[in-house]
Amino acid sequence: MANRLVVIDADDDAFVDRLQRAWDAGDAVLPLDPRLPAPARRDVLTAARLEDVVEPGDALVMITSGTTGAPKAVVLTHDAVRASAIATSARLQVDPARDRWLACLPLSHVGGLSVVTRALLTTTPLTVHHRFDAREVERAARAGCTLISLVPTALARVDPTLFRQILVGGQAPPADRPANVIATYGMTETGSGIVYDGHPLDGVDVRIDANGEIHVRTRMSLRAYRDGTDPKDPDGWLPTGDLGELRAGRLVVHGRRGDLIITGGENVWPAAVEAALLAHPAVREVAVSGRVDPEWGQRVVATVVPTDPGAPPSLDDLRAWARDTLPAYAAPRELVLAAALPRTTSGKVRREGLSPS
């Protein structure tokens, strides 16, 4: 009998059991986000090619929007998922006798599902919440959960001292994060984070090409997309679409190639400006983007969620604050106040929703 692609609602209370049963049958699993509107659901299922069989050894089909916004179906094998679980657990020194994972990010995204898969494959105890609730997360920590994966927005809403280790991904973490909070770098195509605090996990190679793009090579990477295309080169190197550099063996990620703002001939990376502005006491959240400017080519725009909506920061305040730690050209030239930042279902900021480029 040919192996199938089994679709499981990511909010299914029996998700973990159904995942294990599918794997035992030799099938692969597509976790489906139940929050998707009907047109988006159709696009996801079309990209997943439900009518096609899966290759022996395929474990997961994960949906990612890539750089175009169109859904792409990433195929991860059992070998890749297992390699990720082992490398992550080794770096975190996970001990199933004392540790317990808490999964509280959407299981339709690799950042949430990888918590489940690494717990299963290392026989580490696991608690699953189908959505993030700060009070429930802290309650779970007091009940024995020691490890968790979060996005920065969620991290800001819990007491981090309740956990032994916290993985943070999806966007730049706060610069003043506690010592037990680890900044991860990875993508759906790598089966979750593969670089922790700038240092690649065991079994991960990183290089920077002549154009400054980050390439990675690891057993944790995808086999292919469901349409049969393989983004890796013949030597197994995967171009990430991110720009960065290696400093004494430590990876520094600047951001997506398309995120770069060129203002007055100077390069400005949004993440660096965001990190500076987040330290301002009147800034609760911030996202930085570029807007077309007739004089500068692009101007730096800061979209800010103020700490106190009744007393938001001014543009002059933020420019002066940024210039304390950044070159003057990186300081924002426009301020947009917002009640919330536009985000994907996994919690990442949608920069294309901030301002026209």
Quick take:
This protein is 22% helix and 31% strand. The chain is of the alpha/beta class and 357 residues long.
CATH architecture of the largest domain: 3-Layer(aba) Sandwich
Give the mean pLDDT: 92
- Report the principal-axis shape: globular
Tell me the CATH superfamily of the largest domain: ANL, N-terminal domain
Total DSSP helices: 8
Distance between the termini: 51 Å
Q: Helix proportion of residues, in percent? A: 10-25%
What name is given to the CATH topology of the largest domain?
Rossmann fold
CATH class of the largest domain: Alpha Beta
Instruction: Tell me the number of structural domains.
Output: 2
Description:
This protein has 357 residues and is of the alpha/beta class. The chain has two domains: 5-254, ANL, N-terminal domain (Rossmann fold), CATH 3.40.50; 260-353, GMP Synthetase, Chain A, domain 3 (2-Layer Sandwich), CATH 3.30.300. Helices cover 22% and strands 31% of the residues. It has eight helices and 21 strands. It has a seven-stranded mixed beta sheet with strand order 6-5-7-8-9-10-11, with helices on both faces. Strands 12-13-15-16 form a four-stranded antiparallel beta sheet. A hairpin with a 4-residue loop joins strand 12 (204-208) and strand 13. The protein is globular, with a radius of gyration of 21 Å. It starts with a strand and ends in a 20-residue tail after the last strand.
